[in-house]
Write a structure and sequence with these properties.
Layout lengths: L1 E5 L4 H12 L3 E6 L7 H10 L4 E4 L5 H10 L4 E4 L6 H6 L1 H21 L4 E7 L10 E2 L11 H19 L4 E7 L1 E3 L18 H9 L6 E4 L11 E2 L1 E3 H17 L3 E7 L5 E2 H12 L5 E4 L10 E2 L2 H7 L7 H14 L2
Parallel strand pairs: 1-2, 1-4, 2-3, 4-5, 5-7, 6-15, 7-12, 8-11, 9-14
Antiparallel strand pairs: 10-13
Helix pairs in contact: 1-2, 1-8, 3-5, 5-6, 7-11, 9-11
Bound molecules: nicotinamide-adenine-dinucleotide and uridine-5'-diphosphate-4-deoxy-4-fluoro-alpha-D-galactose.
Length: 334
């Protein structure tokens, strides 16, 4: 039983690699390193005692991917590889559509050739758009996302659905992540994007270590508990564990396309996250209130009951754990 992780040296992929190895799975990683570093492979080994097979390869390189499938008996793929910055996707739509859509099409074509028809795909809560209610459930339809990044997620979901219609032997699981934050408790794996971060927790981390002066809170006039945006923050290790259970279910399934929200089911505001970070880490995060960020919705959180009922998965880590682990990671990896 071998599982291929595309994008496996990235933030979520590396945590999932650790959980897979810890549950005895044989894995291989393919990553172009466009947004990660090869030293992650060594760090996975430090944590688990086992070094995963690593291919520095772009999933757009069909010949190279074909060779990886020829060399390894791959039973299933967890497909993380993709570009993920919302703002950058608005500036570089062609790069985003090309990388995410063509990369996925190339991968699926090679999988089909090698009769490997089991895939878990990293989707996002962004595919729900703004349905007008904060609690998002899988039975809601997709709404056109407001940026090219989100559009690639919605399109890939549709491609996977169409693929299954054409061939019922495919087993496909779509995981819709909410807002992953936190880091591995060893401090060896985490999220540390280059440049000025778009996302809230990486920004807070850079303020905490003094690399950025203050946090800009995007709007305090939303109809939420304190006026700031509300999101469902989920610890990346809980999220990684969701992949293990999703994969187990997929392997025993007859075929089909299943979608699961992976979130805690709780919404926290920007200011609640800031206050919690300050409290558990005993550090001040200076902030100013700014204009709303275009495209943001007021509030969203997961209805995570399907994942609990069908996968036996439930997030267990608290907002305090997420803040503590994020701080440890950034201090160890400045
Ligand atoms: P990440 O950037 O840390 O990891 C993605 C990895 O994919 C990187 O290591 C990158 O080098 C690699 N990659 C990108 N294009 C590639 C290509 N063509 N060939 C080979 N490797 C390639 O991102 P992440 O946060 O770990 O996200 C993993 C997946 O989950 C992505 O598909 C992302 O869109 C999705 N997702 C992330 C979030 C989030 O907030 N982090 C939320 C929802 C969904
Ligand atoms: N925020 C700030 N200041 C910042 C950054 C963010 O106030 O510097 C606020 C936002 O306005 C929002 C909240 O913090 O209310 C969370 O923002 P993030 O950018 O961290 O996350 P988003 O919910 O906007 O988007 C994230 C990922 C998307 C993914 C989506 C749903 O970036 O890729 O979650 O999964 F699609």
């Amino acid at each position: 039983m071998k599982v291929l992780l595309t994008g496996g040296t990235g933030y979520i992929g590396s945590h999932t690699a650790v959980e897979l190895i810890n549950t005895g799975k044989d894995i291989a990683i393919v990553d172009s390193l466009i947004n990660s570093n090869e030293d992650v492979v060594e760090r996975i080994k430090q944590i688990t005692g086992k070094e995963p097979k690593f291919y520095k390869t772009d999933i757009l390189d069909k010949e190279a991917i074909d060779k990886i499938f020829a060399e390894n008996e791959i039973d299933a793929v967890i497909h993380f590889a993709g570009l993920k910055a919302v703002g950058e996707s608005v500036e570089k739509p062609l790069e985003y559509y090309y990388n995410n859509i063509m990369g996925t099409l190339t991968l699926l074509d090679v999988m089909r050739k090698h009769n490997c028809k089991k895939i878990v795909f990293s989707s996002s809560a962004t595919v729900y758009g703004d349905p007008g209610v904060p609690r998002l459930v899988e039975t809601m339809g997709r709404r056109t996302p407001t940026n090219p990044y989100g559009a690639t997620k919605a399109m890939i979901e549709k491609i996977l659905e169409d693929l299954y219609i054409s061939d019922n032997s495919w087993k496909i699981t779509i995981l819709r992540y909410f807002n992953p934050i936190g880091a591995h408790e060893s401090g060896l794996l985490g999220d540390n994007p280059n440049g000025i971060p778009n996302n809230l927790m990486p920004y807070i981390q850079k303020v905490a270590i003094g690399e950025l002066e203050k946090l800009h809170v995007f709007g305090d006039d939303y109809e939420t508990k304190d006026g700031t945006g509300v999101r469902d923050y989920i610890h990346v290790v809980d999220l990684a564990k969701g992949h293990i259970l999703a994969l187990e279910k997929l392997l025993s399934a007859d075929g089909g396309v299943e979608k699961y929200n992976l979130g805690t089911g709780c919404g926290y505001s920007v200011l609640e996250l800031v206050k919690t970070f300050e409290k558990v880490n005993n550090i001040k995060i200076p902030y100013v209130i700014d204009e709303r960020r275009p495209g943001d919705i007021a509030a969203c959180y997961a209805d995570a009951s399907k994942a609990e009922a069908e996968l036996g998965w439930k997030a267990t880590k608290t907002l305090e754990d997420m803040c503590r682990d994020s701080w440890r990671y950034i201090q160890m990896n400045k």
